[in-house]
Amino acid sequence: MTHRPRTVVVVGASGTVGSGLLDALRERREVTVRAVCRHPPEDARDGSRLTWHPLDLLAADAADRLTEVLRGAQAVVHLAWAIQPVGDASTPRSVDLDGTAAVLDATERAGVGHLVFLSSQAVYGPPPPGEPRRPVDEAWPVRAHPGSLYSRDKVAAEEMLDAFERAHPQVAVTRVRAALVVRAGSAGRMRRLFLGPAVPSVLLRALRAGRVPVLPLPSGLVLQLVHADDLGRAVAAALDRRLTGAVNVAADALGPRELAAVAGARPLPVPRPVVRAVLGLLHRLHVLGATTGWFDLAVDAPVLDTGRAHRELGWSPAVDTARAARILLDALAGPDPDDGPRPVSAPAAPGRG
What we know:
Blueprint: E1 6-11, H1 16-26, E2 31-37, E3 50-54, H2 62-70, E4 75-78, H3 91-110, E5 114-120, H4 149-167, E6 172-178, E7 180-182, H5 187-194, H6 201-208, E8 214-218, E9 223-227, H7 228-241, E10 245-249, E11 253-254, H8 256-262, E12 266-270, H9 272-284, H10 292-300, H11 307-313, H12 321-333
Parallel strand pairs: 1-2, 1-4, 2-3, 4-5, 5-6, 6-10, 7-9, 8-12
Antiparallel strand pairs: 9-11
Helix pairs in contact: 1-7, 2-3, 3-4, 5-12, 6-12, 9-10
């Protein structure tokens, strides 16, 4: 397939997904990339096909500055998102929704013809009571999980996209609804945000070495992951094809037995209310970063049907969920490149996360 030269702007390019996408776009010699983030990586270098543009989406002039970066580009990919409250509980919502508003404003003003938004599996919410769990495709109703701020904000962002599409039908809008994204280089950040003293490094190393015979897991847990490099390839393919609408991107789904086997253990089913109560207590004691909102989202998330990605993008994951989980475990048990004394983030308001 031959492609015309084009310019793609990636907002949030220094994050986990951004790294995978930049790798995929490097393979497309016809693509020039303008990488936008608040703090470009220390080793970031501009080149003939990649330039870095420092920009804070919460700055008063963010939309104006981003408009200038977007001028002349054929597509923009919006990846910037704050995952979990840290300190000021209002900050993530400002970054996520105000930042999205700035990207939409700049996209309109710069006349960009294709917008790709990184959405999430979380927009599907829990299945209705009494309805059997089954893989869901992109036609499944968008419904926020009431206990998860992350889910509610992703749905709110998609509602902003709905309004944008109605006002600008000439712009192709792609919503990439991804499972939890894994990359070894992001493990340090995940450890700081979601774990903490309640999950000591010695336990993670024991899990990695297969020295934990039994692994307690919530009853009925089903997990899907996607490696950042695979997700980057899917986004790049959506850019190539100017795909519109939503597309699910995930590897296969694993139950408790397969998940425990990643660490060479046997699963020990634990009732969900027990796990939730313990997690909530540890979070309130500042020894665990994960909130009950994240737990609720994890146990209620539907399995994604990725048929559209296979059919219309020619995409399939190179890394399955078991391998992605092992990559994450190995990285979590290894040294943190940013290691040092750090407090766990202060508890957020009830139901956040």
